[in-house]
Amino acid sequence: MQIETDTHTHTISSGHAYSSLAENVTAAKAAGLKLMAMTDHAPSMPGAPHIWHFGNLKVVPRIIDGVGVLRGVEANICNLNGEIDVPDKFVEQLDLVIGSLHEPIFAPSDEKTNTQALINAIKGGQVDVIGHPGNPNYPIDIDAVVKAATKHHVLIELNNSSFLGSRRGSHKNCLAIAEAARDYDTWITLGSDSHIAYTVGKFAECTDVIEQVKFPLERLVSTHAGKLLDFLAERGKTSMGEYYKLR
Questions:
Q1: 127 within 8 A of 154, measured Cβ to Cβ
Q2: What is the rounded distance in angstroms from the CA atom of residue 164 to the CA atom of residue 178?
Q3: Whose CA is closest to 70, among 219, 239, 246?
Q4: pLDDT, one tens digit for every residue, the chain (247 residues)
């Protein structure tokens, strides 16, 4: 399966990652990627960069050594209302915003609470991707979350790192999420959630799930850079034009 994009990577700026942007770009190119999103953790995460880090992403070239670098963030969903820890003025400058539940910011709760937080984040309009929703620490009503993502044109992420130990026990949930996304016309993106360059663009576990559930590849944005760009443009992102030369 050809994969051209990685929508979830971290640099040393995240505090608990180990590679520079340049190292990640080199790895992305070696993996055959055309687009890579730089999505360091937002400020509420311990060790994360100051909000100015995201305001200054404008200094990062759009294309580095033939690889498109999307300016993004992995924002924290902070409360039941689905609010994230990135102000609107910064969200408006970014190409891609992942919204994720993380234990230090939003304590794991019951299925109803976790589900409502994700759905409210989806409805809020700031989040383009729901990050690692298969985390077993956060039980959710999978059908309800996936349906909301379809309705509001938000991507659901399959997170390769979740299968490799960062969120043990995710596999069963991810299978169910992929099946629901298949059945409810939801779009999926693959994110390596790389915290070191050696895993950028590595998706073996994710693609196994895609193949196992027979997910329609036309709704997998990761297979073609232009597909991801079109999806983000439909969500109102106005800075996609420069990347289309990579199609």
A1: yes
A2: 18
A3: 239
A4: 999 999 999 999 999 999 999 999 999 999 999 999 999 999 999 999 999 999 999 999 999 999 999 999 999 999 999 999 999 999 999 999 999 999 999 999 999 999 999 999 999 999 999 999 999 999 999 999 999 999 999 999 999 999 987 788 889 999 999 999 999 999 999 999 999 999 999 999 999 999 999 999 999 999 999 999 999 999 999 888 889 888 6
Q: Provide the token pair at 44.
A: 């509420």
| Encoded amino acid at 208, one letter | D
Distance between CA atoms of residues 19 and 174, nearest Å: 27
User: Quick check: 62 and 242 in contact, CB under 8 A?
Assistant: yes
Q: Which helix (H) or strand (E) holds 213?
A: none
Which of these, 102, 147, 101, lies nearest to 123 by C-alpha position? Answer: 147
CA distances from 222 to 5, 43, 107, 130, 138 (A): 5, 27, 31, 15, 25
Question: Are the C-beta atoms of residues 107 and 77 closer than 8 Å to each other?
Answer: no
Contact 210, 36 (CB under 8 A): no
Tokens at 83, concatenated: 């609010």
Task: Indicate the DSSP class of residue 77.
Answer: B
- Read off the pTM: 0.97
- Asked whether the CA dihedral 99, 104, 108, 112 is positive or negative, the reply is negative
* Residue position matching structure tokens 């640099």: 11
SS3 content of the chain, % helix, strand, coil (to 5): 40, 15, 40
For 94, the 3-state DSSP assignment is: coil
Domains of the chain: 5-246 (3.20.20.140)
